[in-house]
Amino acid sequence: LDTLEKWVTEIFSEIPNNGLPKPSFGHLTQPFDTPEFHKLYRVVPIRKVHSLSITWALPPQEQYYRVKPLHYISWLVGHEGKGSVLSLLRKKFWALALYGGNGETGFEQNSTYSIFSISVTLTDEGYKHFYEIAHVVFQYLKMLQKRGPDKRIWEEIQKIEANEFHYQEQTDPVDYVESLCENMQLFQKEDFLTGDQLLFEYKPEV
């Protein structure tokens, strides 16, 4: 550590500090023309694959990193067991896979907006019924909305993420440093190492 500190001091101490505050783009509250979101776009793919993607533009969520509300919702949407969206669609032979969530990249989550997407890989038969599939997805979300948050489920996700964090494999050092540098721009000092992975606070209103 002493050697690393010496290198950092030598290399970075000559960079001038211009004294400017960190830029904020929070005033740009509506970056998308959201009325245009209420449309169905058909895209012809290069390879033979059928996929239905539903995308929402939400207010910025990165301030709630200790709660991770989008992670909670994506956990439920992506569930594959009994009573799940995918379970129903597979029984009808309409879908092969389903993914829901926020990629937590700078494009999908920042100080201006957050994006939440649900993507369903369809069978040939499912492609004929994509309206019904979209309806099922919205029904499921409406059910979650009516039921409200469930602390037991949130705590289950919290435990699983904690286990994965504690027993994770060692990553490439360069990638790890890059990840930490990004975290230093987003999280409180005490959460630099854990803020992008762990759930800390259960706040149902969020």
TrEMBL record:
The Peptidase M16 C-terminal domain, residue ranges: 2-159
Keywords: Hydrolase, Metal-binding, Metalloprotease, Protease, Zinc
GO molecular function: metal ion binding; metallopeptidase activity
Residue ranges annotated for the Peptidase M16 middle/third domain, each copy included: 165-205
GO biological process: proteolysis
Homology family: Belongs to the peptidase M16 family.
Protein name: NRDC protein
